[in-house]
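notes to self, project folder thing:

trying the whole complex as one job this time. last attempt i did each chain seperately and stitching them together was a nightmare. two parts in total, labels are on each line so i dont mix them up again. if this works i'll redo the older ones the same way
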Amino acid sequence: MQRQGAVMPTTALTGTRLREKRLSLGLKQGDVAAGAEISPSYLNLIEHNRRKVTPSVLVRLAGALGVDPQALAEGAGADLTEDLRAAAAGFPAVRAEIDRLEEFAGRYPGWAALTAALQARAGSLERAVEALNDRMTHDPHLSAALHELLSALTSVRATAEILAETGDLDPDLQARFHRNLHKDSERLAGGAEALVAFLDGSATAREQGIAAPQEEVEHWLADRGWHLAALEGAGPEALEREVGALASSAARDLARAHVARVAGDAAALPLAGFTAALEQIGPDPGQLAAAFGTDVLRVMRRIALLPGSEAGFVTCDASGTLLFRKPAHGFPLPRFGAACPLWPLYAALARPMAPVGAQVETVGPSGGRFATLAFCQTRLPGGFAGPELREAAMLILPDPGPRRPGVLGVGSTCRICPRSDCAARREPSITREGV
Amino acid sequence: MGKHVLLIEDEENIAEAIRFILVRDGWQVTHLAEGGGAARRAAELMPDLVILDHMLPGASGLEILAALRAQAKTALLPVLMLTARGQPRDREAAERAGANRFMAKPFANADILAEVRAMTGTAGPESGPENGLGNGPGGQG
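result (full assembly):
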């Protein structure tokens, strides 16, 4: 329980919460007022948000009601206020009276909650539309599945029309068209089933190889919170059974490569020592790499894949194709196709061994500011005579600090990025204009 | 001999159905199941019309179309493009590449026959509606 007289922020909703709590406990205003050593009329004013409650009175009221004063002071109201603020920010043209927001929430809590719920619903639907559109337009597997379905359907339709409308069809031809029809109807059924499974996002889709192998591996990692604890102090074989259970052989190959890398990371950067160094030095991959005598990309990956890490992490090859995608909240990554060309990842890709650090800002309802650190390393697996291979990586760290001048506005991919004034835009966006 | 259609389509059963309805309508049909070398073959055959699928092994329909338009002999050859991709941007891409007509799959047999007739100026049936699809330029391919 908070001690009397301590600073406790109250809002215009505090009275409403007091009243709701009292009524839910079946207590009379007079009894609670007596317990809190205030007059019933004063409590009545407080409950209707017409008097601001002082911290000491709040503590006494909380005592009379048997609840935590902090819950009465802030409780869900703080979230509601934030949600309403977000709703107002989403529709600036409406000019909602933000200065009277708390009064609105206090006087009409039901309507306020409804407004906030609608805002949340709109945001969730908007994200779903963005994700579905991205999936429909950029998914090569879906495109192939649809093509297969339409081809089979075309054949069935053309053949059925011939059989139905040609009265004097030669028996051999008739038998042949019947066979074609049977074959195509089976193909159609299989294609439709695979498509439905894919759109459902079910495990069946993965089994049928419709989900991309990279996606399958990422789902597997995401299900484990992106940290493979079994590899701390053990080799890749510790996870072979799990990897072997992945649906496609391509996914198993990708997962084995990832597991081997992560096992190497765990051996080179032992968890306890690395976590302590990270706390002491901070997320500077260059300094940490020097401290542990290892390479920068390994350190970046280790930071991103630590238990509970909020950092996003992407890597790409010399073509810019994303090889690994761990999203950070508020920094969406494209599932297919090319990413935003403004990502510092690509600046690093063009300048191997030169560190690139930039504060970036994403747009959209869940957008935010991030500190990005990008670096590119080269390899010569075939020696001087072979090709030079590049791998660039970018750490995406939530940046709670102030917005710095020159912050870089970035997106996920042009198709779903609402920035209308972007000089790097490749193609028009399907999302709302004018951001 | 009837007028000649070059059908470039890799889906065997679709090709068989189209060939059947065209031959029955009096057309001579040559079928190619892949895109590689199709433009050269078209120049050799000089058909009255090319029915060209969009997605083909060897070379895409758009690539073949570009090759046809690039050589003087086939530059004006009427081309009916077939595709399972019916989005406006696909239609625009086909038109930009020089397709005379565009037809999205799945199509009705009567529709494809009507397009072929319209594109070759052979509008009317000659021997009655015996097959339910109408007739075309006469002769059997």
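what i see at first glance: Strands of chain B lie at 4-8, 28-32, 49-53, 79-83, 101-104.
need to look closer tmrw
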